[in-house]
Amino acid sequence: MSKSKESQAYLEVITGAMFSGKTRELHRQYSVFKSCHFNVQVFKRDIDQRYAQDEIVTHDGLRFAKQDVFIAKTVDDIERQIKKGTDAIMIDEAQFYDSSIVKKVDEWVDKGKIVVLTLLPTDYRGETFGPAGDLLAHADKITQVFGRCMFMENGLYCHKPATKTFRKGDVKDVVVVGGSELYEARCRQHHKIKDK
Ligand SMILES: [Zn+2]
Question: How far is the CA of 151 from the centre of ligand 1 (A)?
């Protein structure tokens, strides 16, 4: 890492409800880092994507080079895999890690690493998701992205900016990984409305 990169270290949190494009924004920044020849490591809790020859393709069709993607179930898993020469650490879905992540990201930034996280701030009930509040408080930069409210009434979508994640049906567990069959983006007003 060059001196100039070292002095650029910061913590950025990309936050928004489900379907707001957090991973898309992460990928945009990943592409910028790569074009600057930064060494980047992208951490995910698991890989549910199709494998291409040399890339990992997300369900949105975003491509991360395979050698840049690392599986980490815990914060310790991340730390163990961080390479000395890494300029930027990217972590997808940081809300799923335990609270030890808050102290660790500060340490990594203090050591000169750029850290960029995606973060679902609240669960389907609207409660703070795991370490989300502390991560937002510690961020040097917060990038908020919005989806559009998918509540439908009389055949028309609301389509106001969505800041909440709504869970359809009647599942009680807080952490249930799912896609559009289970979740939808909702505005504040329509997040409160029960499913029909
Ligand atoms: Zn709405």
Answer: 5
